[in-house]
Amino acid sequence: MTTSKPPIVLSSLDVKRLEAMLDHMSPAEAERYEALAAELARADVVEPADMPPGIVTMNSTVRFEDESTGESSTVTLVYPAHAGAPGTVSILAPVGSALLGLSRGQQIDWPTPDGRKRRLRVLDIEYQPEASGHLHR
Predict the structure, then answer these.
(1) Mean residue pLDDT across the chain
(2) How far apart are CA 110 and CA 113, in angstroms?
(3) Which sequence spans correspond to the domains of the chain?
(4) CA-to-CA separations, 49 to 2, 26, 90, in angstroms, rounded
(5) How far apart are alpha carbons 20 and 44 in whole angstroms?
(6) Which residue, 59, 55, 45, is CA-closest to 16?
């Protein structure tokens, strides 16, 4: 399986908050999230009001498929302080970092903590804050 990095779009608010979160980590801790930092650096960044509705942003509820298993899941992508509730996934979890910025139909290869790769495909965005007018959530 080759690594596939599709173009991603992020909200300027999400980028600002995520960069601040990474900046407040110890260097050793931040090193664990280099892949997330790389995603932030390569993204096309737009203002929240200009965010297309079919993009996974922070606090979006997304349905995706793990193409290696065919299993689909629905999760809400949250900041670490809100993770742990049923149906949530932290942006710091590998699957959370992988989904951020993808649009409906896009797929990405993403490493798992055990060194394998998963190919995730976005099936639907059931809720996106920006599309619902919640620009400063």
Answers:
(1) 90
(2) 10
(3) 9-132
(4) 34, 33, 24
(5) 18
(6) 45
Residue 12 predicted with pLDDT over 60: yes
Q: Which amino acid, 46? A: V
Angstrom distance (rounded) from CA 76 to CA 86: 9
Would you call 22 helix, strand, or coil by DSSP? helix
Closest CA to 8 of 46, 62, 59: 46
Task: Measure the CA–CA gap between 46 and 93, rounded to whole angstroms.
Answer: 24
One-letter amino acid of 14: D
Q: Across the strands, what pairs with 63?
A: 74, 124
* Cβ proximity of 21 and 79 under 8 Å: yes
Fold that domain 9-132 belongs to in CATH: Chitinase A; domain 3 (3.10.50)
What pLDDT score was predicted for residue 126? 96
Q: How far apart are the first and last CA of the chain?
A: 37
The per-residue pLDDT for range 38-89, each reduced to its tens digit, is 989 999 999 999 999 999 999 999 999 999 889 999 999 999 999 999 999 9
